[in-house]
């Protein structure tokens, strides 16, 4: 079972937006056992949409398109599909009344452009989009499936989860795709490859090995496509435990969830609470946690203490400590975490204080220098990390490191 | 002049990474005047690489490939290109000594895998990669250009800037691509489209209009491809000033600035300061502002008051108000904003309190109900917005609406 994913919209071809839709779709299709053969981005162009869909249908059982379903003239996906499948349009009353209700509740006129959103090709099945105004569409054509979804990420996600994936599961008998990742740290990619060469060469041919290097780790992914999931998972377990024997000191873990998801689960299970005190990360740690459903069970409060006064007045950091050691210092990071814990009454608190850049760096504390601390019921730990040179990178890495520091403390507790 | 961009690597097809490389490449090619016709992601597969490159060369003058150049066995791009162009390999001494120096300085063995990175097809020109071990490659084939770059983002970026873009500029006589964006706020997409219908219909045919809606604004982009840059820019200026006459009260700015960038600029220029008090948005507003360089000039402090105790203890919200009206209420939103202003000493403060979901909703206050307020030096305004049904959407929309509310107050001040 092969699939292709096509995103439609000039904004991708001119580099105006980052495409995260196809990341989600690819992951979900893989989890279902459908191999993604190709991903494409094309423009809002009738001919290009038609040609691309024809070509990908040659080698795909399923083609998923996103984008181009808005109410305005630049959006042409729906009419192009109707034309391609020689289908007249019909007016869907259920969609129309849903769109009207939705817009009226937001104080928006229900005009003929919105009414036109309820026009769908007769030959398709409507995938009801309860979160937006553009319906999804499911076409069957010569035994193949074509799905058209809106490009708005959360609308697409809900339609995939509620409609597309269940239908694909029911429609096809699918074999499994298995991806498993082992994380190594401390060996460069080429050295690692030499060390595990014999193991790699002896892998069964249906297991595909990929090296995924990044600055702090090299991840090794074993993949198998369209196999019996259970027996292949067992074989991968066996292969990875072989590998652990070859490089025991370099294996640091297996990839599952993100670090904040792991911490989220640990805090929830243990009934412990959390607060944050952020300077350079500016609310990014708080928003990573609060983005997850159920965060209100353990997340009590966060403070973004950007100014020195806020550090002193809200968190109770001693102004003389700031004066003596600077705002970016171990002492201030510790007092921030302890202050957050105190004012919120939480069990744990995370703090960050650093130089996100682009300005504010010095010889001694260059851009990217971040002190972070975790206060626990029994003690406080603090570390300093170099988090890069680009502002976004510094915020991102510092948030990640600080959450990992809390994770370490939770493991020890 | 048309280009295609191909990323090679299974990690994209299985949804393991978000592709930002092609965003950068697409933007740079557009700026140079080269139209990106298609973007593709394919696997580390010899046949697929060959077929895709052949197909895209049919309609592209330039094809840029990234990925698959590492030292390990899963990376096959280089040998596939050599095979395709019937070229033997040669050993590049300069690359070899650079790789050896680079690895030695990091304490990494220079082994035969690294040595093999200095093997390049004879028919290509090496693009020297001073930031990594895999050289870039420049091929000319039947009057077309094929460029192969490493997939590591900063290595790719430096090679694009230092080698690829200057060569393309020199090699071709390029016309301009112009993209200009006008930002509107306060009209839903479909209402806006009706209001400007006549203007849209009268646009010259070489100007392409796109609607780019998000919760706080609808951006209108005019694009023209392969034109005389200067005269088309003037025409776009003329068209946009026409448009301003039609909807004067809804035009808030130009170019791709987000609402927070516009507010960032207004606060900076006026020397005014800001604080935030967030409940349901969980730090998302603070992190949007602090993500921008220079935010420390005006952003004093933010509080994520997730628990009722935090609202009372940190922000000074009256517990009896919470008890009487509930945490999601106009009264609490007002007291939160005023509290943030008071404890931080800022000129302005934004607050949000709502139900992000998926649980916690009621008949009277369903998921997505958000009260938000802005406190100014003279008064406080509060509004209630329905921000959707999905947790991520609610956080995102509520943040956007709240920032737009501050923007309205800044306009009036």
The shape of chain A, in one word, is globular
Report the count of strand segments of chain A. 17
Total number of helices of chain A: 16
As laid out across the biggest beta sheet of chain A, the strand order is: 2-1-3-8-7-6
Mean pLDDT of chain A: 92
Helix content of chain A: 40-55%
What kind of oligomer do you see? homodimer
Q: Pairing-aware structural class of the strands and helices of chain A?
A: alpha/beta
Question: In angstroms, what is the radius of gyration of chain A?
Answer: 26 Å
Tell me what portion of residues of chain A adopts beta-strand conformation. 25-35%
Uncertain stretches of chain A: none
Which pair has the most extensive contact?
A-B, 106 and 106 residues
Describe it for me?
2 copies of one chain form a homodimer. The first copy, chain A, is α/β, with parallel strands linked by helices and 413 residues long. Chain A is 42% helix and 25% strand. Chain A has 16 helices and 17 strands. The first copy, chain A, has helices at 10-13, 21-32, 46-59, 77-84, 93-105, 112-116, 153-171, 189-195, 197-201, 229-246, 259-270, 284-290, 308-313, 319-325, 330-344, 391-412, and strands at residues 2-8, 35-42, 62-66, 89-91, 119-121, 125-127, 136-141, 144-149, 176-184, 208-214, 217-227, 251-254, 274-278, 299-305, 348-354, 369-375, 380-386. In chain A, the strands form 4 sheets. Chain A has a 6-stranded mixed sheet, sandwiched between helices. In chain A, a hairpin with a 2-residue loop joins strand 10 and strand 11 (217-227). In chain A, helix 2 packs parallel to helix 7 and helix 11 packs parallel to helix 16. The longest helix of chain A has 22 residues, at 391-412. The interface between A and B is large, with 106 and 106 residues.
């Amino acid at each position: 079972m092969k699939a292709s994913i096509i995103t439609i919209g000039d904004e991708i071809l001119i580099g105006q937006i980052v495409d995260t839709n196809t990341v989600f779709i690819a992951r979900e299709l893989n989890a279902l056992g459908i191999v993604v053969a190709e991903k494409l981005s094309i423009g809002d162009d009738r001919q290009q949409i038609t040609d691309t869909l024809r070509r990908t249908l040659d080698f795909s059982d399923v083609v998923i398109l996103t984008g181009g379903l808005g109410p305005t003239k630049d959006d042409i996906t729906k009419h192009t599909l109707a034309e391609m499948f020689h289908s007249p349009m019909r007016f869907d009353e259920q969609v129309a009344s849903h769109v009207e209700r939705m817009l009226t509740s937001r104080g928006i006129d229900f005009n003929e452009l919105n009414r036109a959103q309820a026009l769908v090709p007769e030959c398709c099945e409507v995938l009801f989009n309860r979160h937006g105004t553009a319906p999804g569409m499911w076409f069957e054509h010569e035994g193949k499936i074509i799905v058209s979804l809106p490009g708005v990420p959360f609308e697409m996600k809900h339609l995939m989860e509620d409609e597309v994936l269940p239908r694909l599961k029911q429609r096809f008998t699918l074999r499994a795709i298995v991806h498993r990742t082992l994380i190594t740290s401390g060996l460069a990619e080429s050295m690692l490859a030499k060390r595990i060469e014999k193991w790699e060469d002896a892998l069964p041919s249906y297991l595909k090995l990929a090296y995924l290097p990044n600055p702090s780790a090299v991840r090794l992914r074993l993949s198998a496509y369209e196999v019996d999931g259970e027996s292949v998972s067992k074989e991968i377990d066996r292969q990875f435990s072989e590998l652990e024997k070859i490089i025991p000191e370099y294996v640091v873990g297996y990839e599952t969830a993100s670090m904040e998801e792991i911490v989220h689960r640990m805090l929830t299970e243990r009934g412990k609470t959390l607060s944050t005190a952020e300077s350079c990360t500016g609310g990014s740690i708080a928003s990573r946690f609060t983005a997850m459903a159920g965060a209100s069970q353990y997340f009590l409060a966060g403070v973004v203490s950007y100014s020195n006064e806020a550090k002193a007045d809200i968190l109770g950091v001693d102004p003389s400590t700031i004066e003596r050691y600077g705002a970016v210092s171990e002492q201030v990071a510790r007092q921030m975490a302890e202050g957050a814990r105190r004012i919120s009454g939480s069990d744990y608190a995370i703090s960050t204080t650093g130089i996100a850049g682009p300005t504010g760096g010095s010889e001694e504390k260059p851009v990217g220098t971040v002190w972070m601390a975790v206060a626990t019921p029994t003690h406080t730990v603090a570390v300093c990390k170099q988090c890069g040179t680009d502002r976004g990178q510094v915020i991102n890495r510092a948030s990640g490191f600080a959450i990992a520091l809390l994770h370490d403390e939770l493991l020890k507790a």
